[in-house]
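Quick illustration, no need to memorize.
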Amino acid sequence: MSKAEEYQKKLSQAKQILNMIADDNTTPRNIRRTAKNAADMLDDPNLTIAARAANSISVLE
């Protein structure tokens, strides 16, 4: 497995977890909104994988 495939797999796992949090009605609304924003940032094709990850982490902090 190449590094790019490995990074894509990890991005996919992170998006899946963030989307589960965003879709959980027992989670507070501000946390759901932040998780949704972080997941959306991971989908931005204009940025490198590292930049997408850094932006998502920044939103979650």
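The chain has one domain: 3-60.
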